[in-house]
Amino acid sequence: MKAIVVRQFGEPEVLKIEDVEMPVPGPSQVLVKVGAAGVNPVDTYLRTGVYPKLPPLPYTPGKDSAGVVESVGSDVTEYKPGDRVYTSGSVTGTYAEFTLAEGKDVASLPANISFEQGAGIWTPYATAFRALFQKAKAKAGETVLVHGASGGVGLAAVQWAKAAGISVIGTASSNEGIELVRENGADAVFDHSDDGHLDAILEHTAGKGVDVIIEMLANVNLERDFKALAMFGRITIVGNRGSLEFTPRLAMTKDASIFGMSLFNYSESDRLEIRDAIFKGLSDGALKPVVAKTFPLAEAPAAHREIITSKAAGKIVLVP
Ligand code: NAP
Asked: Which atom of ligand 1 is the closest one to the Cα of 215?
């Protein structure tokens, strides 16, 4: 089968398509014929070799995918060949024609969700759910600012929050992104490339501020987020690409809480809560993964460049 293989860390060109052995499922594993694989920013951090925890070389990237079960190990009873599924983890990597996953990292894909959409489920929706509900404990009647709402995690956060009866303010920096955030249910959308956007958001809330901020670029925004945060507000840091100087008094004055999160730190009960909420949300139409662009598997280098350099408008997906 064909798979993308990384033999050395580096620029996107290290993502090479190769012929590799077809994986065979062990007793607890499921082999999935990949219909589409999700591309996440973390895949690019790993590829460059600067991430704190790196895979041993060579490796095939990716843990998000959607497709059809090809075969199952002897202990797997929940799935059978032909079932439509998505993956939340992979033993062999999802940038491939087939991927091997532990049974616990496979979940049913509702019939109304395409493989391209399914490839954009786990990392974005699980991250957004954890940031909003398991960390910041956002609830109906509150106001949430999704600071960076036009990408995979941001659109997922907008959809989750709206479905929970929360008032949503989103941000993006392109006209397409702003329109998309609005279409996905945000009550108001601002441009985060405009220096005055947090003052404008404060004004929009009649000076009260927002109860929760889901922050996609903390090194740029964490200090100034406090302008738009309400008293007793909560901020969940989802994304960060550098350092900043920060005045802790800002948090003291507002009795604010700042949560950090990394998706892989969830407990088993948190994971099951997320998985069940995703299935319900996809099935009842509250959650609709947005695909920005698909690339053939061999064009993984172009997909990696796109996710880092282009303005976001949903998910980037690879199709084998
Ligand atoms: P993505 O699809 O590439 O989206 C990036 C988002 O960041 C876009 O909405 C983009 O908006 C926005 N952005 C750019 N500049 C910004 C600024 N100055 N202020 C606020 N937002 C800004 O990426 P993603 O998959 O949604 O992931 C978002 C971030 O979360 C990434 O850094 C990723 O590594 C991280 N992440 C963390 C976890 C975790 O477990 N903590 C899990 C998943 C993802 P425009 O393009 O419209 O400017």
From this structure: 20
Dist. CA 151 → ligand 1 center (Å) = 6
The protein residue with its alpha carbon nearest to ligand 1, atom 14, reads 148
pTM assigned to the model: 0.98
Over the stretch 127-143, which tens digit does the pLDDT of each residue have? 999 999 999 999 999 99
Ligand 1 pocket, mutate which of 50, 132, 216, 261 (most atoms under 8 A from CB): 216
Nearest-angstrom CA–CA distance, 223 and 155:
23
DSSP H helices in 130-196: 152-163, 175-183
Give the CA count within 13 Å in the CB-facing half-sphere of 113.
Answer: 32
The CATH class given to the 124-264 domain equals alpha beta
Round the average pLDDT of the chain to a whole number and report it: 98
> What phi and psi, each to the nearest 5 degrees, are found at residue 69?
-65, 125
Q: Any idea where the domains of the chain sit in the sequence?
A: 2-121+289-319, 124-264
Q: What is the pLDDT of residues 201-256, one digit of tens each?
A: 999 999 999 999 999 999 999 999 999 999 999 999 999 999 999 999 999 999 99
Could you identify the atom of ligand 1 that is nearest to the CA of residue 312? 46
The CATH superfamily of 2-121+289-319 is Medium-chain alcohol dehydrogenases, catalytic domain (3.90.180.10)
Percent residues over pLDDT 70 in the chain: 100
Nearest one of 34, 25, 31, 180 to 118, comparing CA atoms: 34
Asked whether the domain spanning 124-264 has the same topology as the one spanning 2-121+289-319, the reply is no
- The closest-lying atom of ligand 1 relative to the alpha carbon of residue 42 is 34
Average pLDDT over residues 268-292: 97
Tell me which residues have their CB closer than 6 angstroms to ligand 1.
40-42, 123-124, 127, 147-154, 171-174, 177, 192, 216-217, 220-221, 238-239, 261-263, 307, 311-312
